[in-house]
Design goal:
alpha/beta; M1 Pyruvate Kinase, Domain 3; Rossmann fold; three-stranded parallel beta sheet; 11 strands; 22% helix; binds nicotinamide-adenine-dinucleotide
C-alpha cells in the first residue's frame, strides 16, 4: 500500500480554474485561508494541507480520484506547499519549462474538479532503489569531497538515496542540506581541505569513528 504524504480537501474553485485547465493544462493550488485576493480567481482553494514527506519524481499526485505520476518537481515546491499550500500542477508530461514552484505530472485528461474533492500525494518509489539493494550500498559508507555544492553535493545525495552513509567533505564551513528519509543513509559533515594531508587524515579518522 502506497504511503500518503500529502492530503488536503478542495473547498472552492476560482472562476478561471476551468479556463486554466482547458487552455494551459494546469491548476494553481492555494490554501484557502492564505490565498492572495488577487489570485483567488485563478486558484483551486483547499483546506487541511498536511504534508509529511518529500515530494519527488515517481510519487503519485491524485486529484478528484484520478492518479497522475509526478515526473518533475521544482526546487521550491516542498517549502511552498508546506507553508502556503501553494504550487502549480502542470499536466504536460514534463515537456514544459520547470519553474521553482511547479510540479509536472503525466499528460492525461484532468478530471472534473469540485468542492469536497481531495488532493493527495502518495509515495511510490521503486523499492529496489529506495532500499539500496540493487547497488549493494545499504549500510556502506561513501566519502564525497567537494560535496557542499554542485556535482559533489548531487553525488552525495545519490549515495544517500541508495542507502549509503556519506561523509560529506568540503572547505566550505556551511553544512549543506540533504534530503534524508527513513530509507536513506546518514550524513556526517567534515570540513576538509583535500590539498592538505593532515586535513584528509583527520577526515578519514572522523569517518571511521562515525560509521566504522
Ligand atoms: N568536465 C566537465 O564537463 C565539467 C562540468 C561541470 C563542472 N566541471 C568541474 O567539476 C568541478 C565541480 O563542479 P561544481 O559545479 O560541482 O563546482 P562547485 O563550485 O559547485 O563545487 C565545488 C566544491 O568543491 C569545494 N572545494 C574546493 N576546493 C576544495 C578543497 N581544497 N577541499 C575541499 N573542498 C574543496 C568547494 O567549496 C565547492 O563546494 C569543477 O572543477 C568544475 O570546473 C567539469
Amino acid at each position: 500500500m502506497a504511503e500518503k504524504i500529502y492530503s488536503s480537501k478542495i473547498v472552492e474553485l476560482g472562476g478561471q480554474v476551468g479556463d486554466f485547465i482547458a487552455a494551459a493544462n494546469m491548476i494553481i493550488m492555494f490554501e484557502e485561508s492564505l490565498a492572495l485576493p488577487e489570485l483567488r480567481d485563478a486558484c483551486v482553494m483547499h483546506t487541511g494541507n498536511e504534508l509529511s514527506g518529500m515530494i519527488k519524481p515517481g510519487n503519485i499526485y491524485k486529484i478528484a480520484g484520478t492518479e497522475f505520476k509526478i515526473v518533475k518537481v521544482g526546487s521550491e515546491v516542498q517549502k511552498n506547499l508546506m507553508n502556503l499550500g501553494h504550487i502549480t500542477i502542470k499536466f504536460d508530461g514534463g515537456s514544459g519549462e520547470l519553474l521553482e514552484g511547479s510540479i509536472h505530472v503525466e499528460e492525461k485528461p484532468v478530471p472534473t474538479i469540485k468542492a469536497g474533492d481531495m488532493i493527495e500525494i502518495f509515495k511510490r518509489e521503486d523499492k529496489r532503489i529506495a532500499d539500496g539493494s540493487w547497488l549493494g550500498l545499504k549500510g556502506k559508507t561513501a566519502v564525497v569531497t567537494g560535496a557542499a555544492s554542485g556535482i559533489g553535493k548531487a553525488v552525495a545525495q545519490a549515495f544517500l538515496d541508495n542507502g549509503a552513509n556519506v561523509v560529506v567533505c568540503d572547505l566550505n564551513p556551511n553544512e549543506p542540506e540533504f534530503n534524508i528519509t527513513e530509507d536513506s543513509g546518514k550524513v556526517k559533515y567534515v570540513i576538509t581541505n583535500v590539498a592538505e594531508a593532515a586535513s584528509v587524515e583527520a577526515m578519514v579518522k572522523t569517518a571511521l569513528d562515525t560509521f566504522g
